[in-house]
């Protein structure tokens, strides 16, 4: 089960899902790192499906906890390239 999603505030690509494996599951990890060019859309769809699943299984209406953290700066020390840290923002006019 997904406990919460962490959005990387230092890049526009990464999402970290913190999961709690179900009993009897062969999954042993507690985190899943996702790199996506369409992160905002992916997190919206994921949150919607998560909410529907919780409503179906537990008869509760809850929202997926989504938090922000600067994970890219921590991952830069490992195996990321400089292009992973680039932020591309839409044009908002001249100041």
Which labels suit this protein?
2 helices, 95 residues, 4-stranded mixed sheet, 4 strands, alpha+beta, single chain
Task: Report on the architecture of this protein.
With 95 residues, this protein is α+β, with helices and mostly antiparallel strands. The chain is built from 2 helices and 4 strands, in the order βββαβα. It has helices at 39-58, 71-75; strands at residues 2-8, 14-19, 31-35, 65-69. β1 and β2 form a beta hairpin. The model has no long low-confidence stretch (mean pLDDT 83).
- Strand order, sheet with most strands: 3-2-1-4
Strand content: 15-25%
Encode the helix/strand succession as letters: EEEHEH
Average pLDDT taken over every residue: 83
> Which segments are poorly predicted (pLDDT under 50) over 5 or more consecutive residues?
none
| Class by alpha and beta content | alpha+beta
Termini, distance in Å?
A: 45 Å
Main sheet attributes: strand count, strand direction, barrel closure: 4 strands, mixed
Number of strands: 4
Query: Over all CA atoms, what is the radius of gyration?
Result: 16 Å
């Amino acid at each position: 089960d997904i406990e919460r999603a962490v959005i990387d505030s230092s890049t526009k690509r990464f999402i970290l899902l913190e999961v709690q494996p179900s009993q009897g599951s062969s999954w042993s990890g507690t985190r899943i790192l996702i790199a996506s060019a369409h992160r905002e859309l992916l997190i919206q769809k994921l949150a919607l499906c998560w909410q529907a699943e919780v409503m179906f299984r537990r008869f509760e209406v809850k929202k997926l906890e989504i938090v922000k953290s600067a994970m890219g700066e921590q991952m830069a020390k490992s195996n990321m390239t400089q292009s992973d840290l680039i932020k591309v923002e839409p044009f908002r006019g001249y100041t």
